């Protein structure tokens, strides 16, 4: 197992390098950039994107290169010295290859630089936004597992019954509802839209959170997180429930289960003494990947709708505002985390079932 883990760790380097190269090359062809953002700000053009200390949201329109030899259309009337100074400030006066190699050298030392427009270290910025995304990802994943696993087991035991039929219909309907649409519906129904004002509209804590008691802070936190977590979790139920059900059905039909029954073992003993461990292998081992999926994916709209300042919103704002250090720094970090989680998932398989040997399978 040690040799397998070592090979997987060594593969992280070329994989991560490939991810960074592809994205860096694509960005070179995207119109607009930090210089255009600054020019738009100087000339009062474009909307100011919230959270970027006055940077323009997207000055790409009308700011690209022109055939007349003028690099930035928005730079008309600005002295060339100022444009050169802006390019030097953002490091765009160097060739792309030199910029990429310098960026990767810094990233290998976990030096992600400073945000162009926020003037904050990228790593500090990520750490500042991470608690919000951890809250959404952790609670959504835990609730999905706590509900889906018992439900999936029950559906497998009652396969073909009315209970199995109507629960399948309910979770498929829930899966078909987009998370952002469900989030809006929750706001309308329970956050003072057109019906009841039971939950707060935005944020993770109240304005007077610091003055609350310890128990008051806990209750206030859960009061604020209820609707965002519900919106994030709704689509996760279907996949996990059906995965659990099908996994149990596959195991129930195997010969060792029939042998256990023939020896007089009760259904509960067969289910939890023999079937459970094998059937739960794929479900439990997939926990890290599911958590990372909820943690990094699908949170942009939820965070925007509920005014939560997390990693999803940070990445979206960085892309719109062409804040390259934040864009590439978060891409590197999230890519690295995703690759490491893949290794952790394999280790979870071995932990749940020691009979699995990835080295022999590769051989």
UniProtKB/TrEMBL annotation:
<keyword id="KW-0472">Membrane</keyword>
<feature type="transmembrane region" description="Helical">
    <location>
        <begin position="9"/>
        <end position="30"/>
    </location>
</feature>
<keyword id="KW-0813">Transport</keyword>
<keyword id="KW-1133">Transmembrane helix</keyword>
<feature type="transmembrane region" description="Helical">
    <location>
        <begin position="165"/>
        <end position="191"/>
    </location>
</feature>
<dbReference type="InterPro" id="IPR000515">
    <property type="entry name" value="MetI-like"/>
</dbReference>
<feature type="transmembrane region" description="Helical">
    <location>
        <begin position="326"/>
        <end position="352"/>
    </location>
</feature>
<feature type="transmembrane region" description="Helical">
    <location>
        <begin position="281"/>
        <end position="306"/>
    </location>
</feature>
<keyword id="KW-1003">Cell membrane</keyword>
<dbReference type="GO" id="GO:0042884">
    <property type="term" value="P:microcin transport"/>
</dbReference>
<protein>
    <submittedName>
        <fullName>Microcin C ABC transporter permease YejB</fullName>
    </submittedName>
</protein>
<keyword id="KW-0997">Cell inner membrane</keyword>
<dbReference type="GO" id="GO:0055085">
    <property type="term" value="P:transmembrane transport"/>
</dbReference>
<feature type="transmembrane region" description="Helical">
    <location>
        <begin position="221"/>
        <end position="244"/>
    </location>
</feature>
<dbReference type="GO" id="GO:0005886">
    <property type="term" value="C:plasma membrane"/>
</dbReference>
<feature type="transmembrane region" description="Helical">
    <location>
        <begin position="132"/>
        <end position="153"/>
    </location>
</feature>
<comment type="similarity">
    <text>Belongs to the binding-protein-dependent transport system permease family.</text>
</comment>
<dbReference type="InterPro" id="IPR035906">
    <property type="entry name" value="MetI-like_sf"/>
</dbReference>
<keyword id="KW-0812">Transmembrane</keyword>
<dbReference type="Pfam" id="PF00528">
    <property type="entry name" value="BPD_transp_1"/>
</dbReference>
<feature type="domain" description="ABC transmembrane type-1">
    <location>
        <begin position="130"/>
        <end position="349"/>
    </location>
</feature>
């Amino acid at each position: 197992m040690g040799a397998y883990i070592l090979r997987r760790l060594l593969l992280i380097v070329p994989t991560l390098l490939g991810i960074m190269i592809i994205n860096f090359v694509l960005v070179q062809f995207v119109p607009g950039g930090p210089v255009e953002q600054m020019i738009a700000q100087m000339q009062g053009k474009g909307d100011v994107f919230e959270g970027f200390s006055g940077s323009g949201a997207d000055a790409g329109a009308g700011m690209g290169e022109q055939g007349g030899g003028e690099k930035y259309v928005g730079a008309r009337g600005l002295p060339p010295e100022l444009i050169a100074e802006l390019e030097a400030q953002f490091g765009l006066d160097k060739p792309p290859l030199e910029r990429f190699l310098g960026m990767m050298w810094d990233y290998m030392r976990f030096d992600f630089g400073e945000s162009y427009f926020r003037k904050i270290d990228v790593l500090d910025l990520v750490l500042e936004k991470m608690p919000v995304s951890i809250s959404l990802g952790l609670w959504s994943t835990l609730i999905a597992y706590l509900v889906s696993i018992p439900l999936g087991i029950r559906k497998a035991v009652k396969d073909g019954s009315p209970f199995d039929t109507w629960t399948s219909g309910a979770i498929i309907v829930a899966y078909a509802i987009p998370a952002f649409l469900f989030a809006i519906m929750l706001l309308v129904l329970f956050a003072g839209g057109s019906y009841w004002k039971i939950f707060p509209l935005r944020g993770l804590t109240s304005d007077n959170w610091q003055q609350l008691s310890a128990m008051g802070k806990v209750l206030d936190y859960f009061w604020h997180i209820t609707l965002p977590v519900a919106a994030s979790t709704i689509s996760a139920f279907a996949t996990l429930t059906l995965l659990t059900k099908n996994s149990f059905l596959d195991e129930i039909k195997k010969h060792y289960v029939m042998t256990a029954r023939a020896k007089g073992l009760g259904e509960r003993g067969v289910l939890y003494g023999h079937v459970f461990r094998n059937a739960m292998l794929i479900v439990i081992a997939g926990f890290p990947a599911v958590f990372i999926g909820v943690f990094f994916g699908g949170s942009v709209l939820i965070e925007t709708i509920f005014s939560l300042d997390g990693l999803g919103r940070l990445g979206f704002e960085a892309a719109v505002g062409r804040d390259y250090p934040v864009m590439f720094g978060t891409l590197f970090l999230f890519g690295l985390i995703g690759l490491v989680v893949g290794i952790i998932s394999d280790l979870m398989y071995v932990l749940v079932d020691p009979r699995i040997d990835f080295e022999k399978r590769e051989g």
